[in-house]
Specification:
single chain; 218 residues; alpha/beta; FAD/NAD(P)-binding domain; 2 domains; three-stranded antiparallel beta sheet
Length: 218
């Protein structure tokens, strides 16, 4: 039988596994995450009071279908969560889980690793309170945490619109509402969205951000 390894258990990896299983192949699915779904369809941790379907809005149908597909496959694939794929050599995939190294031989491999934030290092970018879009989404989807009541978006990532929509949706759920009065709104080039519980601001395209300092972007 053909040995196939899939790196990534997001929507692309799950779709690839579905096709392979339909053709009689039992793929090995390697994923760094605790649960399937990838970043875009990340599942909330068990017990979290979060209506993920309401949060995702128009993407809710795709989320539901992706996880339903995985549930139908999980007994017909070799699924290895919390496993890092760190090297490929001579048709061998090198992995690491819980500090234990292992190898997976393959005849074919599918890399479904998804996208990652590409962050430009500038002064202050490692300060507390400075997040990438991916980091903000992880905290929101998996842990039910907003990164703040007043959020400024800098840059032109294609994920920005998606993250804005998620944050807008989050304030409609009681478990996310910030407690206490809102801080004064700092004047920005363009206020994208404002709510009694949350303020989102977007730095105008074409304006450079040279540094982060304390609670502001300069």
């Amino acid at each position: 039988m053909t040995r196939v390894a899939i790196v990534g258990a997001g929507p692309a990896g799950i779709a690839a596994a579905d096709v392979l299983v339909a053709h009689g192949v039992v793929p090995v699915v390697i994923d760094e995450g605790l649960r399937p779904g990838g970043q875009i369809y990340r599942q909330p941790r068990p017990g979290l009071r979060l209506d993920i379907m309401a949060l995702l809005g128009a993407e809710a149908g795709n989320y539901r279908r992706t996880h339903a597909t995985f549930e139908s496959l999980k007994d017909r694939i070799d699924y290895r969560p919390q496993t890092l794929a760190w090297a490929i050599e001579d048709r061998t995939l090198h992995t690491m889980k819980d500090s234990a190294a292992a190898t997976v031989g393959f005849d074919a491999i599918i890399l479904a690793t998804g996208a990652a934030d590409r962050t430009l290092p500038i002064k202050g970018w490692t300060l507390p309170g400075v997040f990438t879009l991916g980091g903000a989404q992880v905290l929101l989807k998996e842990h039910g945490c907003l990164i703040g009541r007043r959020i400024v978006f800098c840059g032109r990532s294609p994920l920005r619109r998606n993250t804005l929509a998620l944050l807008r949706g989050s304030v409609l759920q009681k478990s996310f509402r910030a407690q206490g009065p809102m801080e004064p709104v700092h004047q920005c080039d363009h206020v994208e969205h404002r709510h009694a519980e949350l303020t989102l601001e977007v730095v105008r395209i074409g304006r450079d951000v040279g540094a982060f300092a304390n609670d502001r972007a300069d």
